[in-house]
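A favour, since you know our structure tokens better than I do. Just paste the record in under my message, thanks.
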Amino acid sequence: MRIKISDITIDPDIQVREHLDASTVERYAEMLEASEPPPVTVWGAANLLSDGAHRVAAADRAGLEDIEADWREGTKADAIEHAASANSRHGLPLTASERRVAAAHLLKLGKTQEEVAKAVGMASQGIAHLVKTLQLRGEFVPPKRPTGGRPSKILKPLPEDVRDLPPSTLSRLAYAPEERRTEIARHVKDEGLTEREAVAVVKAVNAEPTIDLRDIRKQAVDAAETRDPWIALHAALEAGKHLLDFDVDDLAAQVRRPERAVWLAQLDENIDILQRIRATVEAKV
């Protein structure tokens, strides 16, 4: 069926894309000159758009008054669920942040972590990190006994002044002791720490629950400035241990980047250094 473009409702709560891609709109506009693009999907009496924002923009740009649409009976929740899954399956690929938005929509609709991972094409560990982030921001409380899958740990939301920390950093703070989590979050924000540094702080507190957060950086600096190379090496290796806790999908994504050759060369160099140190130590023992 054809629907007037002016009758289509574009609700920000339903759209998972951060912005429209100009080249995609242009491609659909050119397609309109020769043929009709696939129908957009709308829901309910309000014609809530769940799939086809680029096509609607192209039609509007071309001066069309209506567009072919797949109208479906349903609620806003149905439209959100369809938008999250449909945009993950076809069209312009979603960015990592857009996939997280789509996943968050589905989680809030009561979908299990396994269902969400499959719908948006994210690794299960990525969904687990997202659940932690949403909890700490006070945006989501996972069901204690979800239908299917294992129960999620319930985390107490952080104060509003630290909820704007990067999602990757927030998810790491979930592993901090609850009684010190807010203190650590404020320390991370005030000191401008990176995600890696935040991980190091969390690990230090888990190892020594009463440690003064100001002492953690001092210890690292003291170790780095020491004149004893073995102590410095040990400190460097300890600081890098968190790199072993990588997500396989995240690592693969890193390797696929254009700078992968440099990344691999640096890895080979570090391995070579450690092997030479080991050979020297073995020769002196």
Q: What stands out?
A: The longest helix spans residues 260-284. The CA atoms of residues 126 and 250 lie 9 Å apart. Residues 1-93 form a domain with the Conserved hypothetical protein from pyrococcus furiosus pfu- 392566-001, ParB domain fold (CATH 3.90.1530.10). Residues 241-248 have pLDDT under 50 and may be disordered.
